[in-house]
Recover the amino acids of this structure.
């Protein structure tokens, strides 16, 4: 009887770990999708395909300021070998650098929120914010084939 309870407990613990592992992956993917959705209209404005809209820019910057801080906390060691993730092992090998990228992305977006007042300042400041995405992706995300 005790042995059955012990085995059942261990199985339940393993299932809980697997669920939480996939949960953090789902959470971080949702944050990335949200940031991607916010950068699409920004990119269109940068290319002149969409009219500059300060309210949209500010709304996007708010997401780009908040999400990186949340995102970098969603990489516990237990999610290192998770399936269906594009995260590279370098995240866990150099966690401090990874987290610093999140901090910089957040700070740059916050700075842009106060600095961008018109289309000219948008075209100057927004590339600084967006380059954070590429820098982090180049180092910590699997390349798409």
């Amino acid at each position: 009887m005790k042995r059955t309870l012990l085995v059942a407990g261990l199985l339940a613990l393993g299932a809980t770990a697997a669920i939480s592992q996939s949960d953090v992956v789902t959470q971080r993917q949702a944050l990335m999708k949200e940031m991607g959705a916010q950068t699409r209209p920004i990119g269109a404005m940068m290319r002149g395909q969409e009219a500059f809209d300060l309210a949209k820019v500010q709304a996007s910057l708010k997401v780009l300021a908040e999400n990186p801080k949340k995102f970098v906390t969603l990489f516990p060691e237990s999610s290192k070998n998770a399936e269906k993730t594009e995260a590279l092992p370098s995240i866990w090998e150099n966690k401090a650098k990874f987290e610093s990228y999140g901090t910089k992305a957040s700070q740059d977006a916050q700075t842009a929120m106060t600095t961008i007042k018109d289309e000219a300042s948008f075209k100057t400041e927004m590339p600084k914010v967006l380059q954070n995405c590429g820098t982090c992706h180049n180092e910590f995300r699997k390349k798409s084939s």
About this structure: Residues 12-21 have pLDDT under 50 and may be disordered. Residues 2-46 form the longest helix (45 residues). Helices lie at 2-46, 54-71, 90-93, 95-115, 119-140. DSSP finds five helices and no strands in the chain.
